[in-house]
Structures are given as C-alpha cells and as structure tokens.
Amino acid sequence: MSLLILLRHGQSQWNLENRFTGWVDVDLSEKGKHEAEEAGEKLKDFQIDKAYTSVLKRAVHTLEIALKSAGKEGIPVVQDKALNERNYGHLQGLNKAETAKKYGEAQVHLWRRSYDIPPPGGESLQDTAARTLPFFHKHVIEDLKTGKNIIISAHGNSLRSIVMELDTLSREEVVHLNIPTGIPIVYEFDNNLHIVSKKILS
C-alpha cells in the first residue's frame, strides 16, 4: 500500500488580488501561510517518505510550512519546474475580472479551464500535462511502486493534469475540475497501484 498526497499551494498574493499568476514567482499571502499550516495539521497522522514541489516559491513555501506543521521536516524534497503552474502568457499579472470584461467571461473561462485552448502566448492544460505527467510517471509513480508515501506541493493546473489522469476524467469533465488551495487530497493505492480510496481533507 502507498499514499499520494496532492496539495495545491496556499493562497498567493496574486490569488488575493485576483490576478493571473502562472510562472510569475509570487509568494504566499498571510492567509496562504495559514492554509499551509492547517494542511500540515491534517497530515500529522500520515507517514510521508518523500516530497515533490515545483520551483515556484508559493509551492515551495507551502510544502515547508505544511511539513513543519505536521512534524515531518527532514524528508527528501525534490524541486522541478515540470510541476510549475501553467504559463498564462500575456494574461500573467492581469486582473481576472478586468480580463473577463475585455475578452468576455466565456472566453476567459475557456482559457482557464479547458483542456486544449491556451491563453495568448501561454500554455493550455494539455501543454501543462505534456511536461507534468512524464515527470510524474518517471519519478512519483516509481516511488509509489516501492511503497513510499509521497506528497506533491504544486499548482492548480499541474495538479489538475495529474487528477485528470488518476480519476480518468474526459476533456469535457476536466473543465469543471477545480483544485482548492491548501486542501490535501489523499489517494491510497494497493500493491498493483490501483486506487483504493480518495479523500479530500477539507
């Protein structure tokens, strides 16, 4: 048996300001730090053997705070840009509400939630999955095969691509998938790497 814990970073300063963040390296807000602490509290009773995170500070700091809160500091941590948030291109830094007024809410919703429609100059979820999933299979799945319990601290869209695969969601279904900030999602696998259970620790 092995566990996979997915954790979207706590609220960032630009989440608070309702701006598209993408690859811009924005740190956590005070609420985000609190969310990370609360996530760690919920993970105290779980054994965690190894951690993965993107290279962006909001995910890195969420992991650091959560592991400290859970009393699990000192486990191996791997950082990799394959787990970074999707690149929002020309939308990065723009206010989401103002962008919706300019381009229309339906168009912005497609850019944010669809599978294969990228924002101008940026990545679609399909593009994000093309770098996230090979890394996930090469490293995380191999760890799970050996019985290790793994936590990934990453982003809304890099985690959406992983959940899409784990939950076998269609392109139509993934449009409605939202990963909340600071809420651990725990998958339990049997020895054949079949999912036994999924729990959202809200």
Quote the distance from N terminus to C terminus: 23 Å
Total strand segments: 6
- Oligomeric assembly: single chain
Proportion of residues in β-strands:
5-15%
Instruction: Let me know the average pLDDT.
Output: 96
Put the structure in a nutshell.
The protein is α/β, with parallel strands linked by helices and 202 residues long.
How is this structure best described in words?
The structure is a single chain. The model has no long low-confidence stretch (mean pLDDT 96). 42% of the residues lie in helices and 15% in strands. Helix 6 packs across helix 7. The chain is α/β, with parallel strands linked by helices and 202 residues long. The two termini are 23 Å apart. The chain has a six-stranded mixed beta sheet.
Short key terms for the protein model shown above:
202 residues; alpha/beta; globular
List the helices and strands and how they pair.
Layout: E1 2-8, H1 13-16, H2 30-42, E2 50-53, H3 57-70, E3 77-79, H4 96-103, H5 105-113, H6 125-145, E4 150-154, H7 156-166, H8 171-174, E5 185-189, E6 195-200
Parallel strand pairs: 1-4, 2-3, 2-4
Antiparallel strand pairs: 1-5, 5-6
